[in-house]
């Protein structure tokens, strides 16, 4: 299952620089002018997880394979995008295709880098993008909800569900609130709401791009963004895209020393990747053996057959049971054999809800 985080923001806030650092490539052209990224660039990045190395060491694995997220660098947006200004229609279409929005906000002063609004104000920048997404959703639902309500009067069950849940979303949008605050009453409403693909229904992570000297603690501008995120129940992280560009140009063995020298425990990119993973409510299970130790992504709340399906559809279709060891037991006891002897290897069936960190081996028959 692929999960995609779309990197958005106004022009010249550091989106493409951040993307290049995330993917350790120059796939996105970073330039000091708007719309340098015309087509969305996609990069797969490994999710940092120290548990993976510990399991691999115990299993004496030849290879270590992390789970991955896709990051999409999307062309810069300007005011009026919902009406087709700039690259508006293309921008909105690209946003519709991602699972979560990583909203990069400029939280640094630099006279050499033009700001599209000629002032640095991350809250105002965030509102420009949010307003365009909201206006697009509003325009869509103001047509769809009355049409669904009309069909519902004729006994159309699906239309009745749509009129209810999308009607709730429409009221929120009219109040200037995002559609993600909608509360579907049951699984059917949740399904219809998800199918609507509303832009403001997507979870958002704010990335505060700060100057190098503010990378450890942030600054007054990033503090305002964190306040905004807290008020919305959203997430925010501080990153210096300039520092991250330096880090990825270094030899891997030099990076930890560099981070320590500038007062950072880990790279900002590691925080962004993990925050994106959490934003999508994703969890990780592991498979381990002499050939490889591998991390697998699954949506929170998945049962054992669905988790098995992340490896191969045959595993889900022919699922019999899952031999499962909790991560702490696997590491504390020193592997599968010791966990089995200690009675910590469990045989779990189809109703088992997989836990983050489970080390699993699936039995199946097709």
Which key features would you list for this structure?
3-stranded mixed beta sheet, 42% helix, alpha/beta, 366 residues
Give the topology, please.
Layout: E1 4-8, H1 15-23, E2 41-46, H2 50-59, E3 63-65, E4 68-73, H3 88-96, E5 100-106, H4 122-152, H5 157-174, H6 187-195, E6 204-209, H7 220-232, E7 235-239, H8 241-248, H9 252-261, H10 268-279, E8 282-288, E9 292-299, H11 304-311, H12 313-317, E10 319-325, H13 327-333, H14 336-341, E11 346-348, E12 359-364
Parallel strand pairs: 1-4, 1-5, 3-9, 5-6, 6-7
Antiparallel strand pairs: 2-4, 8-9, 10-11, 10-12
What does this molecule look like?
With 366 residues, this protein is an alpha/beta fold. It is built from 14 helices and twelve strands. The strands form three sheets. A six-stranded mixed sheet has the order 2-4-1-5-6-7, with helices on both faces. Strands 3-9-8 form a three-stranded mixed sheet, with helices on both faces. Helix 7 links the parallel strand 6 and strand 7 (235-239). Helix 1 packs parallel to helix 8 and helix 4 packs antiparallel against helix 5. The protein is flat and about 60 Å long. It starts with a strand and ends with a strand.
């Amino acid at each position: 299952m692929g999960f995609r985080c779309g990197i958005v923001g106004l022009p010249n806030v550091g989106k493409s620089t951040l993307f290049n650092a995330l993917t350790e490539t120059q796939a996105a052209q970073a330039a000091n002018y708007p719309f340098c990224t015309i087509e969305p660039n996609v990069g797969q990045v490994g999710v940092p997880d120290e548990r993976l190395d510990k399991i691999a060491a115990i299993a004496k694995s030849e290879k270590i394979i992390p789970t991955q997220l896709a990051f999409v660098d999307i062309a810069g947006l300007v005011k009026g995008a919902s009406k087709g200004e700039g690259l508006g229609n293309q921008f909105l279409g690209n946003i519709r295709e991602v699972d979560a929005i990583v909203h990069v906000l400029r939280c640094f002063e630099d006279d050499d880098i033009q700001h599209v609004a000629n002032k640095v104000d991350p809250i105002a920048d965030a509102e420009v993008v949010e307003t365009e997404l909201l206006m697009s959703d509003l325009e869509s639902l103001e047509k769809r909800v009355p049409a669904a309500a009309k069909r519902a009067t004729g006994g159309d069950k699906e239309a009745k569900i749509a009129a209810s849940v999308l009607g709730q979303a429409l009221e929120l949008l009219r109040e200037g609130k995002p559609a993600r605050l909608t509360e579907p009453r049951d699984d059917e409403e949740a399904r219809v709401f998800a199918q609507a693909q509303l832009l403001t229904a997507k979870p958002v992570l704010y990335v505060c791009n700060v100057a190098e000297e503010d990378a450890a603690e942030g600054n007054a501008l990033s503090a305002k963004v964190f306040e905004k995120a807290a008020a919305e129940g959203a997430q925010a992280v501080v990153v210096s895209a300039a520092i991250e560009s330096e880090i990825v140009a270094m030899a891997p063995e030099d990076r930890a020393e560099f981070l320590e020298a500038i007062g950072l425990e880990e790279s900002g990119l590691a925080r962004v990747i993990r925050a994106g993973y959490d934003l999508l409510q994703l969890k990780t299970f592991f498979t381990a053996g002499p050939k490889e130790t591998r991390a697998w992504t699954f949506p929170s709340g998945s049962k054992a057959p669905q988790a098995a399906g992340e490896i191969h559809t045959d595993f889900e279709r022919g699922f019999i049971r899952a031999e499962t060891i909790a991560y702490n037991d696997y590491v504390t006891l020193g592997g599968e054999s010791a966990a089995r002897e200690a009675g910590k290897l469990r045989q779990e069936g189809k109703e088992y809800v997989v836990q983050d960190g489970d080390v699993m081996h699936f039995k199946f028959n097709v």
